[in-house]
Amino acid sequence: MKTKRKLNLTRRKKHLIRLPPPHPNQQIILESSACFRVVACGRRFGKTFVGLYAILAAAARGQKCWWLAPTYAMSTDVWEQMQAVTAHLPGRRVYHTHRRLNFPGGGSITVRSTHTPDNLRGAGLDFVVLDEAAFMPPTIWPEVVRPMLLDRRGGALFLSSPNGKNAFWHLYQMGVQRKRSWRHFHFTSAHNPLIDPAELAVIRAQTPEHIWRAEYLAEFTDDLGQVFRGIHAAATAPLAAQPIPGARYVFGVDWGRTADATAIVV
User: Fold this and answer.
1) d(CA 125, CA 255)
2) Fewest CB atoms within 10 Å of the CB: 54, 187, 233, 265?
3) CA distances from 132 to 75, 141, 214 (A)
4) Tens of pLDDT along 58-95?
5) DSSP labels for 120-182?
6) Pairwise CA distance, residues 86 & 5, whole Å
7) Nearest partner of 5 among 17, 21, 26, judged by Cα
8) pTM for this one?
9) How far is CA 151 from CA 119, 147, 154, 157, in A?
């Protein structure tokens, strides 16, 4: 029978919230003292629980916290979980209109969507969880969230499966390069000990390679979501720099109209 991990959410009285214990790989993330933690993980690794536990612990310390998700609908499940696990906490207040929980010790958690970034500006924060960060607008972190943490010296937890080498990949590289206050983590779906390896094998056999690598192995692939895939491999092939005389070549263009660069493949 599994034990429940106790989380103290008040300072004066020990009213405890019981959550399922994190598995060992989740615990590695939770025990990190880095200010900015970037977690690239496969599907069903349990990233939402990591974020839930981290943000509840921060609110227990009296911190002002936000949970951000790419869309309103994506944030609904965690909002409902937060209400459920704190339902019996004396003094806890729920503000449904603003999707905010206020805790007795002065901490708070607000659940927001990043769909309209300008609507997020202004508030000062101690801690923020960016759930599915790879699927947020690239301006969210540098232009909106990072300035909100400045005066309070707040921290951030980025959770996502990869979505190509986009803004989330660049944040992950901050940890790879051991930048000050940054730490990166990489876990596949198989790193969740509760997942049956046989079930993953079935999924592997039925899933396209590029989806398997990104969604389950949590790899940052160059060609995920592109119209033309394998660009780097084709451009660096042995014959790539040596056109064949008399041959007919056809090229295609993938216009980069937003965040990506334009790609031309011959």
Assistant:
1) 37
2) 233
3) 10, 13, 13
4) 998 999 999 999 998 999 999 999 999 999 888 899 99
5) GTT---SEEEEETGGGS-TTIIIIIIHHHTTTTT-EEEEEE---SSSHHHHHHHHHHTT-TTE
6) 14
7) 21
8) 0.80
9) 20, 8, 8, 18
